[in-house]
Amino acid sequence: MKDPCSCTPKSRGSRFTLVARLGILAAVALPLAACTSAVKVAPFEGAETEACHAVGARWPSQVGPAQWRETAVESVTVAAWGDPAIIARCGAVPPGPTTLPCLDIGGVDWIMDELDDGYVFTTYGRSPAIEVLVPDAYETAPLLLPAFAAAAETIEQGPNRCS
Fold first, then answer.
1. Do 60 and 138 fall into the same domain?
2. Rounded to whole angstroms, how far apart are CA atoms 144 and 141?
3. 86-92 and 118-123 beta bridge pairing
4. Which domain holds residue 81?
5. CA–CA distance, 5 with 58 (Å, rounded to integer)
6. What percentage of the chain exceeds 70 in pLDDT?
7. Distance between CA atoms of 61 and 88, rounded to whole angstroms?
8. Which N-terminal stretch is annotated as signal sequence (predicted)?
9. Rounded to whole angstroms, how far apart are CA atoms 110 and 126?
10. What's the whole-number mean pLDDT along residues 29-57?
């Protein structure tokens, strides 16, 4: 069996073709790699409100160990941190009464729903609501929520509370 690591070029043309192909691949891959650094996330419909802009002005610069990341949309109503990305969006429809766990974290109430690949936390009793998606890669996801307190507190707490 021929050693796949040993290469004897058949001709100068074959070598040039391989080098040319690698050059073309690099020319295409580098711009694509640059585009993938921004997190693709869509704002909620109707999120461009005064309340959500106030939330966006208070997004944290860091969430636990995760640093701020650029998003692919130009809207302050969405934000991302880390890799894999923790994503926050303002403008969610406020949840009604639920049997899902409800956590009071530093005076902000959050509904916690487990997903296949992480958790989604939604503020409870605030309108509009804020949604925070935390991938499984981050252990103890609820411990990341205090970073969002200042943003969440820009929206007044309504009568619904965790009991």
1. yes
2. 6
3. unpaired
4. 50-152
5. 55
6. 78
7. 12
8. 1-33
9. 10
10. 80
Sheet of 86-92, strands arranged across: 62-63, 66-69, 78-81, 86-92, 129-135, 118-123, 108-115, 102-105
pTM as predicted: 0.77
Helix (H/G/I), strand (E/B), else coil: 63: strand
Residues 23 and 85 in one domain: no
Task: Find out whether the peptide bond into 84 is cis, omega within 30 degrees of 0.
Answer: yes
DSSP-derived letter for residue 72 is: S
Same domain, 94 and 117: yes
Could you say which DSSP state residue 142 is in? G
Rounded Cα distance, 33 and 25, in Å: 12
Do 29 and 59 share a domain, yes or no? no
Q: Residue 157 falls within a domain, yes or no?
A: no
Tell me what the mean pLDDT of segment 49-56 comes to: 98
